[in-house]
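User: Hey, quick favor. My workstation is busy. Could you predict this chain's structure for me?
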Amino acid sequence: MVSSTSTQNKSQGLYTKYHVRRVDNKDATIGDKHFACPLFVLDVRHDEYARAALKVYAFLCTKEYPELSKDLWELLKRNENEEI
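Assistant: No problem, here it is.
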């Protein structure tokens, strides 16, 4: 869900632009370790910094989460030729 603030403002810093929820609803379950955890959205198609961050994440999770790593590299590859 996009908030009412949808224009890019490079001097604004971190602000609420999206409302993201876990599909399993654990972020809304009081007592769960994921309750009220902050979540951050990355636009892999249009944001070069998001791509760089996702590359680091994909690399770092390779050993413990090999399938996730593989999927992230594929996501990056599918979106590498998009204009930024």
